[in-house]
Amino acid sequence: MKTTVPASPTDQLEVDQDIISRVLAGNRDAFSVLINRYSDPLYRHALGMTGSPDVAEDILQMSFIKAYQHLAEVRGRFDAWVFRIVANGCKDWLKNIRRTHLSYDEDDQPSGYSTPDEELDRTELRSDLDKALMTLAPSLREAFVMKHVEGRSYEEMADLLGTTVGALKMRVHRAREALQALLEEKYA
Amino acid sequence: MLDNLNARDGSGDAGRERPRRASEIAQPLSDREVPLAGTATTSEMINRWLDGEAPEPAALSADSTRQIDLWRRIEEESERRRHLVTPAHVKAQIMAALPTDVPAMALPWWKKSIHVSPVVALAAAAGLVALGAAIGNSMRIR
Fold first, then answer.
1. What's the rounded Cα separation, in Å, for the pair B142 and B138?
2. Subunit contact B78:A148, Cβ cutoff 8 A
3. Residue burial A24-52, b: 16+ Cβ < 10 Å; e: rest
């Protein structure tokens, strides 16, 4: 199905509400427009938070199913609402994995990033960056992933997470400090 | 009150300035660990650069060169991840896994139907009777 790109946030909101109305009226297939439009940034968020493509796919699937079941409860922006579902799914997964004492090293998941033609040191940096990210507190990792991997502005992050720009800057800076401390011995 | 003759900070000699140590006199101002107004540390410069608030900082020392190089590499990797897309099969899987029922419309609580089992209904009725009796008794006592 072809996805139309809305011109402004207001248009986007209207288009999304129109799609939601169609789904609620019984057009189940219309939901695929929302999936096509929003799955990529949500997948990147889940992948950045969990470090595992398989887990990211599961979280994305569960989140969209939950969003579909509660679609009538959407008030305001669908993308912000579904982002919160995914973000909570990631946090729940992280809580469970800590409870079962499964460390990143023990979780022998493929990184999903390596491609055969890329240089060995880049692959190594990827792996080390993933491991370093997994040692960060979830709130710091979330801020770093949203800023660096998802390329969001601080204002957008504040809007999605319901916090202030200053607090988020502080989290990102602390995450950078921690990552630098972990990686500079080997790479700097 | 006695003066503290052992004080090294000058507190025992009120009004008199503490004599400077030789090391302090010899140390030039630029070597002291006091941030000067208008200068930023390497960490601050890197943060401003990564936040898009300043251009890439010029390396001032070997340490800062290495730090900047590390962040350049992390940024390259982040940029690559920024273009990752959802695997195609995942979207199809999500659509296939959606419930076949149309999502329920959200109703305000007073419009929602209430399902009460016979046991709960009996318990509620007994509770109401007991409450009525208690109120009746309290009124008779007065």
1. 7
2. yes
3. beeebebbbbbbebbbbbbbbbbbbbbbb
Contacts of A171 (CB under 8 A, 6+ apart): A139, A140, A142, A143, A144
Residue B98 CA neighbour count, 13 Å, CB half: 25
* CB distance A187 to A125 below 8 Å: yes
Which CATH architecture describes the domain A123-188? Orthogonal Bundle (1.10)
Give which of A61, A62, A165 to mutate to test B binding, by max B Cβ within 10 Å. A61
Which residues, 6+ apart, have CB-to-CB distance to B82 below 8 Å? A44, A149, A150, A151
The CATH number of the structural domain formed by A10-121 is 1.10.1740.10
C-alpha to C-alpha distances, B114 to A40, A175, B21, B60, B129, nearest whole angstrom? 40, 49, 84, 72, 22
**For chain A, which ranges sit under pLDDT 50?**
1-4, 101-114
Nearest to B67 among A44, A150, A188 (CB): A188
From chain B residues 55-94, the ones with a CB under 8 A of any chain A CB are: 63, 66-67, 69-71, 73-75, 77-78, 80-82, 84-87, 90-91, 93-94
Q: Do A36 and B91 touch (CB under 8 A)?
A: yes
pLDDT in tens, A152-183: 999 999 999 999 999 999 999 999 999 999 99
Report d(CA B51, CA A136) in Å as an integer: 20
DSSP-derived letter for residue B30 is G
Domain boundaries, chain A: 10-121, 123-188
Alpha carbon distance A82, A103 (integer Å): 28
CB of A187 within 8 A of CB of B73?
Answer: yes
pLDDT in tens, B54-84: 888 876 777 788 889 999 999 999 999 999 9
